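Section 4.2 – Deliverable D4.2 (structural model, holo form)

The reporting period included a commitment to supply a predicted holo structure for the target in complex with adenosine monophosphate. Inputs used:
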Amino acid sequence: MMGLMQQQPLLISSLIDFAARFHGDTEIVSRRVEGDRHRTTWAKVQRRSMRLARGLDAWGVQRGERVGTLAWNGYRHLELYYGVSGSGRVLHTINPRLHPEQIAWIVNHAEDQVVAFELSFVPIIQAIAAKCPGVRKWVALCEPGALPGDALGEVAGLVGYEEWLAAQSEQPYAWPVLDENEASSICYTSGTTGHPKGVLYSHRSTLLHAAAGALPDVMCLSAADSVLPVVPMFHVNAWGTPYAAAMVGCKLVLPGPALDGASLFEIMDDEGVTLSAGVPTVWLGLLAKIRQEGRRPLSLARVLIGGSAAPQAMIESFQDEWGVEVRHAWGMTEMSPLGTAAAFKFKHQALAPQQRMHLQTSQGRPLFGVDMRVVGADGAELPWDGRAVGELEVRGPWVLADYYRSGLPNPLHDGWFPTGDVVSIDADGFMRIVDRSKDVIKSGGEWISSIDIENVAMAHPAVAMAACVAVPHPKWDERPLLVVVKKPGAQVESRDLLTFYEGKVAKWWIPDDVMFVDAIPLGATGKILKTRLREQLLGSAGQS
Ligand code: AMP
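Output (structure tokens):
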């Protein structure tokens, strides 16, 4: 027997309509590229995203076609989030930190019809426009009259965002009633080898993820909050905060490009920020500023730390010194991204501080909707005893089913997505990452492909063999170190090799140093044994 309840698809347009209707005067505050602070409301964001939808209709952008963005966290990016997805197009958020070659590849792979960009990214547009012939319109997210016509004179289809919106009717727009399983946004993740891979989210997955992320054991979001996502809207939808914020109708504070400790402290103070979310590198900057000021931002109550492991000293500093509650979370682009959060259960209240800290330094337990298991090398499931270590696999309604047109075999294993994280799980479902099986380095919350770094080194005439490993770094968490065996008789200095990288990879991908060795340990199949190499270099404490 079927239930007798109304059938309404879960759509992103319903989020902005809800926020505009019931929290219409709640503020969205953005620090802009120009340096000033802009104030708007959920009601105004709705109206402008409707104009934007109309503008896309006028350009003939079809349902399901992709609209790219190269933008910081700000109100115009938020309008694109709602106007593009709400009207049935697919929002393609692009990571501006990638090398322009990779960005051009991604834009072409996604077949973006329109790319909207902030003025900070004009050099990227200069580098890629001619390589992306499929893009019909390049929209500059700037004030009226500030179109970078001089810098981008050669670019066909250049339009100013404000002029484009102003030309559209103010009348309310009827959002299309889509199938909730239609695609809403796409984010590319830099894989270990080859090209980046697209993860295509749906309206349904996005809404379910936002609802789960807002729950008390994750972000604990409510209309009484003022939320500052430091995590970028150009990567995995800023952990879903732009959607979850509309779902609960809270105040949203968007930091633009100013992510240093002093700027964050100032805007948190001024805008009554209660919750903020970011990677550990960002929190190092904020904590330094807090120490300098001798106080925390006045209303800051909680921080969500994820993307890389939250160090114990950081959790202690926030909680014990400054009275800010830490929620350590883990996730991946392939899971929208939230998977687990380290929140206590009722029975944990009685634990000693040291045991509670042990739980908080773990990556936490699953949100409702995420199932996980840990498997050994033979693919068999391992016990949840906090000791057995294997690869973590996940499944759920906001976990990827396949990459977008990757041309690769489906990544699932018996319906589970293998994460590449090597973990143990305890009897209470708390997961702890102990290593990573994927050959990547996470620096300041962003990936560097060690294999790409090795391939460049191998192209140098003096290099016989190269391996790139992660070494711990106090600010960036990890940095790449290049280990090289020279060809017999070859003369080469570290400096020569590092210069060799210029123009071939993004600047921040270039290894910090080169170490010359006589041999690199290899496994039975000739593969470099990274774990052995790291042990040799760093001692047994060295982990990826
Ligand atoms: P991304 O797809 O860029 O979001 O990266 C996802 C990967 O980042 C995960 O598979 C982990 O390797 C790593 N990661 C994310 N959160 C954490 C965390 N809290 N602790 C340790 N590693 C993390």
